Amino acid sequence: MSDDDQLQQPQHQDDLLLYRLYRIHATAGPLVVRMCERDYGITRREWRVLSCLADVEGVQSSELAVRAMLDRARISRAITSLTDKGLVRREPKPSDRREVHVFLTEQGRRVYGEVFPRIAAIQRDLLSPFSGEERRQFSNHLARLQASATRMNPGGDWLPPLEDAPG
């Protein structure tokens, strides 16, 4: 059976795209987890929150939860833990103190600035078997897969995974 046939008509678990993607994550993801926990004392979930905040600071926790693909309880725990570690701060909106926005602290920016290049290096190593053109094609294919998944699940309904999603 050709590779195309295997993808269109999987016969075994190893033929399933989501399983194959999970195996890559389960194999390479621990490199990120170990580095974050060992060198920075943060979990993968906390890293994800820091990374999301580095892209868009000053968001409410509800928006941050959507960006990080975490439910309210998990985002609340992650923000509390990161606040306790001095990596993020909560600021109430002056006009409505019930509305709280989340920001990176200077220490949070420093940790992000140290961690991100290390994770990018892991990605470079993971993608090193591919040529530049193959990496561009792969990135385009991933974007198309994401668009397809979004079309299949237009409301963005998702159940939080038993373990965190990738980095």
Keywords:
Arc Repressor Mutant, subunit A; 3-stranded antiparallel β-sheet; mainly alpha; 167 residues; 10% strand; 3 strands
SSE sequence, one letter per element: HHHEHHEEHH
CATH superfamily of the domain at 43-107: Winged helix-like DNA-binding domain superfamily/Winged helix DNA-binding domain
In total, the number of strands is 3
Morphology call:
globular
Helix content: 55-70%
| CATH classification, class level of the domain at 43-107 | Mainly Alpha
> Approximately what portion of the residues adopt beta-strand conformation?
5-15%
Gross CATH architecture of the domain at 43-107: Orthogonal Bundle
Strand order of the largest sheet: 1-3-2
Terminus-to-terminus distance: 34 Å
- Rg, alpha carbons: 18 Å
Q: Can you count the helices?
A: 7
Describe the structure.
Among the domains are: 1-41, no CATH class; 43-107, Orthogonal Bundle (Arc Repressor Mutant, subunit A), CATH 1.10.10.10. With 167 residues, it is mostly helical. Strand 2 (88-93) and strand 3 form a beta hairpin. The mean pLDDT is 89. The protein is built from seven helices and three strands, in the order αααβααββαα. It has helices spanning 3-8, 17-40, 44-55, 61-68, 72-84, 106-127, 132-152; strands at residues 59-60, 88-93, 96-104. The protein has a three-stranded antiparallel sheet. The longest helix is centred in the first third of the chain and has 24 residues, at 17-40.
